[in-house]
Design a protein that fits this description.
The chain is mainly beta. It has three domains: 182 residues, no CATH class; 305 residues, 7 Propeller (Methylamine Dehydrogenase, Chain H); 208 residues, no CATH class. It is built from eleven helices and 46 strands. Strands 2, 33, 42, 43, 44, 45 and 46 form a seven-stranded mixed beta sheet that branches. Strands 4, 5, 28, 29, 30, 39 and 40 form a seven-stranded antiparallel beta sheet that branches. Strands 1, 3, 32, 34, 35 and 38 form a six-stranded antiparallel beta sheet that branches. It is globular and about 95 Å long.
């Protein structure tokens, strides 16, 4: 990559409950291409405006990013298959615990980029037979520790001479015998510090040996120094250990973590409890040679912080300072997400993550952000300058594409989305209406300073566009807040643009529809289910016309849930609606009955962070809902603009949490009634994002393409004389300020 010029491009890419009555994504596929798209036009690049003011610049952020990653697989080591369980890096050698049929420790020279000889237990004098399950590796002070689950041992090797030399084994090699002093039963993890060696086993404990016990004369008979208590660690235990000074961390793959203070650990102590325990969502901790502390989360994200204060531990993991969650490999067409790691390592400015049967090595490089008084202009595009345009949810799109979650999905809090892909900046709209006067705002990962990256005059509904944008490390971008500009230096040190370089968002100062869409906070992933009558019963195959209208309905519903009125109703439910919200036990006091204050908060958070919502078309007269599924009948698709039972959407949405016995889905109560009345209130106030049935013209869809006909009597506006309870309530009790576009 040229150090002074980095080219980017910009891509603008079941257990259900039936209820009758009531009347890309970031894909590489197949969105409809626009045949009339003009040839690309190179925009005017941003530049500096010279003046006589002395230029001042100050470093405001120094951030690490992952450069092009390398993947290690079975084939890297000349194997047809493997089962990597753990890894360590020592003196530029990668060691991998390969728990395959014939377990071994694989070795790879990272500098020379070549495979070294593997370690096989059956070839080691003093062991003489294969490892029976090899679960973990750890390294400390030139010693390599290997935990073999069914061999009931922790084997210790000296790495000081270059080639691993076997020293001895902790444990006896048997699960029976003196549990208190010598036996370790199915060890699954190991760690060490200057004083001790630690190994978990299936008796819900962490065995502790003094380092002074590590000698050939103590092979298979070293005496334990102490035992720590590790709750719920039986035969299926997945604990990992990490020693940090006088602290020992134990973490499980469900995110539960325990911390032990070893400062005053006494010889012979048993069942020593953790000093702190908490579910922080971390699977693996790692204290690295760069004097930083790393945590691999169940989501795959890897956080970095300063090392914990071992004398006064305030939190299990200190304040997060940087995060890594994506990577790129040479020649790959898309970015890849890190997944939940079995193990992580950091060595020589390289981050290693072991997940999904592979090891990913990411070089970490620094990018510096400077703020200066240098003036900057913004590249302004017109949609017609696009290199290409494509569209989603269009008539003629196949059912297979429409229901492919990888190809067709969007996030409710990011309906207008932007992301960088290699040398492409991808802009995508799941808005059912065209949007205009857009600004693309950006900030570096893990920083606070937003700046203006580019502007676009117009973006069609349900579209993706690609625009050409040139960026180099000498350019300046105007800050969004305050005056001056920012500059990104050291971009030329990267082989290509880092996968997670910028966080992007889209805004508009003049388009109220954009402002409504971008105000939405519900974190729902929306996609379309592959339901069909022959496989799912009372479901119809979704079509583009239904899908587009579902986007309209679910966006209006999200706007309702996001409204200050909904929040007011939810947290004042009894005062507003006349009764407390209640669970599946009905209108009773106690568990499963009327909500407590804590439950109101808990379930509000769950509503806003529900996750995946799978949309479909039902043929039952009302709808179906439960788990992640949400389906309604044809009449809702055209009647929701008028005086209709739109509360059905809230009802089916509520089945994610409750039955017909609960306020989640009981007619006349709770979520259905709130949805019905608040929708009418917002509709009358002209606040919903979508108010015009002529936008998608669903009611004009040919009858042959619908699962039921259009009933014109359901397309009549609500009479002005019809005023519901919530309309009267908010007329009498107006909120001081809505703060909602």
């Amino acid at each position: 990559m040229n150090k002074t010029l980095l080219s980017l491009a910009v891509i603008l890419s079941m257990a259900l409950t039936g209820c009758g009555g009531g009347g890309g994504s970031d894909s590489n596929t197949a969105a409809s291409s626009n045949p009339s798209a003009p040839a690309p036009v190179t925009p005017t690049s941003p530049g500096s405006t010279p003046d006589t003011t002395p230029v001042t610049a100050s470093l405001i952020n120094d951030v690490r990013f992952a450069d092009l990653a390398t993947e290690f697989s079975a084939q890297t080591f000349g194997l047809d298959s493997w089962n990597p369980k753990a890894m360590v890096v020592h003196q530029d050698i990668l060691y991998v615990a390969n728990d395959s049929a014939e377990a071994s420790i694989l070795s790879y020279d990272l500098k020379a980029k070549r495979v070294l000889s593997s370690i096989h237990a059956q070839n080691i004098s003093g062991i003489g037979r294969p490892w029976n399950r090899l679960f973990d590796l750890s390294v400390h002070n030139d010693r390599l520790y290997a935990a073999s689950y069914s061999s009931n041992r922790v084997d210790v090797f000296d790495l000081g001479s270059g080639e691993p030399q076997f020293l001895m084994s902790l444990g006896t090699g048997s699960w029976s015998g003196d549990q208190h002093n010598t036996v370790v039963v199915h060890p699954m993890s190991v760690a060490a510090n200057d004083q001790y060696v630690f190994a978990t086993d299936t008796h819900s404990r962490i065995n502790v040996w003094k380092q002074s016990e590590i000698s050939s004369t103590n092979h298979l008979k070293a005496k334990k120094y102490a035992r720590l208590s590790l709750p719920n660690c039986g035969y299926n235990c997945s604990a990992r250990l990490e020693a940090v000074g006088n602290l020992l961390y134990a973490s499980f793959n469900n995110g539960m973590s325990y911390v032990y203070d070893l400062t005053h650990l006494e010889e012979g102590a048993t069942n020593v409890a953790a000093t702190r325990q908490e579910n922080v969502g971390t699977r693996v901790f790692h204290a690295a040679d760069d004097q930083r502390f790393y945590a691999a989360h169940t989501s795959g994200r890897i956080d970095s912080s300063a090392l914990p204060n071992t004398q006064n531990l305030q939190n299990i993991f200190p304040a997060v300072e940087e995060s890594f969650y994506k990577y790129r490999t040479a020649g790959a067409s898309t970015d890849q997400q890190l997944a939940g790691a079995l193990d992580i390592q950091v060595s020589q400015e390289h981050l290693f993550s072991l997940f999904n049967g592979k090891i990913v090595m990411m070089p970490l490089k620094r990018l510096q952000q400077f703020q200066s008084n240098t003036a900057a202009t913004v590249t302004a595009f017109k949609q017609q300058q696009a290199q290409s345009r494509s569209y989603v949810l269009q008539d003629g799109e196949s059912w297979e594409t429409l229901t492919n979650e990888n190809l067709r999905h969007f996030y409710m809090d990011n309906i207008l989305s932007a992301n960088l892909q290699h040398q492409l900046l991808a802009l995508q709209s799941y808005s059912a209406a065209p949007v205009r006067d857009l600004e693309i705002h950006a900030r570096l990962k893990d920083t606070e300073q937003w700046f203006v990256l580019a502007r676009l005059d117009h973006l069609d509904a349900f579209s993706q566009v690609k625009l050409k944008l040139n960026i180099n490390e000498n350019m300046h971008f105007p800050l969004l807040q305050g005056t001056g500009s920012v500059q990104l230096r050291n971009l030329g040190n990267f082989q290509q643009l880092p996968a997670d370089l910028l966080e992007l968002k889209i805004s508009s100062a003049t388009d109220p529809h954009v402002q409504k869409l971008m105000s939405l906070k519900p974190k729902w992933k929306i996609h379309f289910g592959n339901f069909a009558p022959e496989t799912h019963g009372n479901w119809g195959k979704i079509t583009p016309a239904y899908a587009r209208e579902w986007v309209i309905m679910i966006t209006n519903f999200a706007y309702l849930v996001n409204s200050p009125e909904f929040k007011h109703i939810w947290f004042n439910h009894k005062a507003v609606m006349g009764h407390d919200f209640f669970g599946n036990k009905g209108q009773v006091v106690g568990d499963g009955g009327y909500f407590t204050a804590a439950e109101y908060q808990k379930y509000y958070d769950e509503i806003m962070n529900r996750g995946k919502v799978t949309l479909g078309v039902t043929t039952v007269g009302g709808g179906l809902g439960g788990r992640n599924v949400l389906g309604v009948d044809t009449w809702l698709f055209y009647a929701h603009y008028f005086n209709t039972s739109i509360g059905i959407v809230g009802h089916e949405f509520g089945h994610h949490w409750g039955s017909h016995d609960s306020a989640w889905a009981k007619g006349g109560y709770g979520l259905q009634e709130i949805n019905q009345q608040l929708h009418q209130y917002l509709q009358r106030k002209q606040r919903l994002p979508y108010m015009d049935p002529e936008l998608n013209k669903f009611h004009l869809t040919p009858r042959a393409e619908l699962y039921n006909g259009v009933a014109e009597n359901m397309r009549r506006p609500r009479p002005d004389s019809h005023v519901n309870h919530l309309e009267r309530y908010f007329a009498a009790n107006p909120l001081p300020e809505t703060n909602q576009p």
